[in-house]
Structures are given as structure tokens and as C-alpha cells.
Specification:
300 residues, 17% strand, globular
């Protein structure tokens, strides 16, 4: 008998997804999902995303929460046994702590993630509020800074090479784990694998970097996400890759499960298979958030 389905990582059109809260709820109900967490990308500084392409803009935060609340009523009607939980995917970048505190105060689940490496410019709340939703920064980041998984702008890979990007990513990921923000789980832990089949394969020293990540997650008491999104992007392994997942397991790092769905049809995509994969890697349980803000462990 398989474990109940959960999906702790989903998006809507309010950030960089395509579906509405209501469409995601209906898809989750149809899949038999027991816990659905909405995790749109939290508001970002204008210096990182001047065109507001991949976030819930500051002007939309209130409407975003109101739409979630309306969808919660639908969830209670059509899937009364499903917990529908409000969260954010909170990108970590240097100096983000005050921004996350200000913009994610209503979130019951905070997913930590690293998509950006290098300096992020002026990241203060005041700067974002003053220039919100307008182009308040250069369209392209400076040398040594940028998005690591944005296929339309791979300058950071060309500047640093695969080894340099991985080194910068692991440093940032460990800094996120050490952050006082209190991330509930670290999303897609080895995201640089995204371009491993596009000319930037993982560096020869990847196992040493994996060891650093497992040690850091253990020392900081973090959960990590087992994500199925990589398989939809054409990769042959999950985030995290098998070698990293096994290290997390040996280090006693709890896991959560998520699809990183950006459309309703991807809700719970591959999660049942991911449960089996986690079992094969040595896991016997996974962590689950509840509507009251608590977490519990469910058996695989």
C-alpha cells in the first residue's frame, strides 16, 4: 500500500506558473492529494527581477492571499480531507532576511531555494517599495552574478564555467541553510543539474560538494525536498540526484516531496514514484506540513 500523496511545491500565475489556485485545487483533488502546499515565488528586489517576471509583485501580495483564501473554500468543499496550505518559495540571496520577514509573514510554509548567485545589488525593503513593479535596475546583472537556471540568460555559466557555478551555488545554498530565516525545507537542492545536459555537466569534484551540502543540512537541521521537476525537464534523475539523496539519508536529513508544478496538470506529478525512489535510497519516512503549522512524519 503506497503512502498518501502530498505536493509541497506548486505555483500559480501570480508568480511564474500558468494555473490558478482553483485549478490547482481541482487537480490535487482529482489526484487524491492529501496535502497541497502553494509556494509561489516570493517578491524579489528590483535589482534581481526588474520586470517582475518570476515573483508575486509587491502590489499583488494582498490579492494573491485573497485568491488563496477563496480557493481554500473550494478545497474544503470538494476535498475536505485535503490540507491546502499557504506558503512561498523564498529565494535566498545576500541580505534577504528582512525582505522575507516583511513579505512572507503570512506563510505557513517557507521553501528555501537558491536560483541566484553573486551580489544582488540593493535588496532593501525600502528600495523595493519605492520602485516596485517598474524597471528600477539594469536588465542584466553584473559580472559574477545572475540566475543559474534561466535558459534565456546563461551568462553566469559562460563567465564561471560549470565548476565555478557549482562552487558559487553550494556556497550560497549552505548560507541559506545557515540563515536565521527558518526555511521549512530546501527546494530542489542540486538545481545546477538543470544544465548538465546542455554543455555544462557536473564538475569532477561533485561528490565533495555533495558531502558539504549533506554536512551543512545536518548541522543546520534542515529538511530537503525530493523534487520530480528535473524529470519533466529531461534529466534522468531527481533533484537531488541519487548520490546526493543517499548522502542526505545517511546524514539523517528528513525529506519532503514536491512536483514544483507550474501548471495544474503537473500537480502530484511523479510523486508516487518519488516515494519508491526515496525508499530505495534508504528513507523510511517523509515529512509533511499540516494546516496548523506543525509538521509530522509519514511512513513510506
Amino acid at each position: 500500500m503506497r503512502a498518501p500523496l502530498i505536493d509541497c511545491h506548486t505555483h500559480t500565475f501570480y508568480s511564474d506558473g500558468e494555473s490558478s489556485f482553483e485549478e490547482n485545487v481541482r487537480a490535487a483533488a482529482a489526484a487524491g492529494c492529501r496535502v497541497l502546499v502553494s509556494t509561489d515565488h516570493l517578491t524579489l528586489p528590483a535589482s534581481m527581477d526588474p520586470r517582475c517576471e518570476c515573483q508575486v509583485p509587491l502590489r499583488d501580495l494582498a490579492a494573491h492571499k485573497a485568491a488563496f483564501d477563496a480557493a481554500s473554500e473550494l478545497a474544503a468543499e470538494i476535498a475536505p480531507d485535503m490540507d491546502f496550505i499557504f506558503g512561498f518559495e523564498c529565494d535566498w540571496y545576500p541580505g534577504c532576511e528582512a525582505n522575507v520577514a516583511a513579505w512572507a509573514c503570512a506563510a505557513q510554509v517557507k521553501l528555501g531555494s537558491v536560483h541566484w548567485v553573486g551580489p544582488a545589488g540593493d535588496v532593501s525593503v525600502a528600495a523595493r517599495e519605492a520602485g516596485c513593479d517598474c524597471i528600477a535596475a539594469a536588465d542584466t546583472p553584473g559580472m559574477g552574478a545572475g540566475w543559474i537556471d534561466y535558459s534565456e540568460d546563461t551568462h553566469i555559466w559562460k563567465e564561471l564555467g560549470a565548476a565555478g557555478v557549482w562552487r558559487a551555488y553550494v556556497d550560497a545554498w549552505c548560507a541559506a541553510c545557515e540563515s536565521p530565516i527558518g526555511f521549512d525545507s530546501m527546494a530542489h537542492p542540486d538545481l545546477p543539474m538543470r544544465f548538465s545536459q546542455d554543455g555544462w555537466p557536473a564538475p569532477s569534484g561533485i561528490k565533495k560538494l555533495w558531502d558539504e551540502m549533506a554536512e551543512c543540512a545536518h548541522d543546520t537541521g534542515r529538511r530537503v525536498e525530493l523534487s520530480t521537476a528535473s524529470l519533466r525537464k529531461g534529466l534522468s534523475d531527481y533533484y537531488p540526484a541519487a548520490g546526493l539523496l543517499e548522502r542526505f539519508c545517511k546524514a539523517g536529513i528528513p525529506i519532503t516531496l514536491g512536483s514544483d508544478a507550474h501548471m495544474a496538470t503537473d500537480i502530484c506529478w511523479g510523486v508516487a514514484e518519488a516515494q519508491r525512489h526515496a525508499y530505495e535510497a534508504g528513507y523510511r519516512s517523509f515529512d509533511v506540513p499540516r494546516a496548523d503549522g506543525s509538521w509530522e512524519s509519514w511512513r513510506l
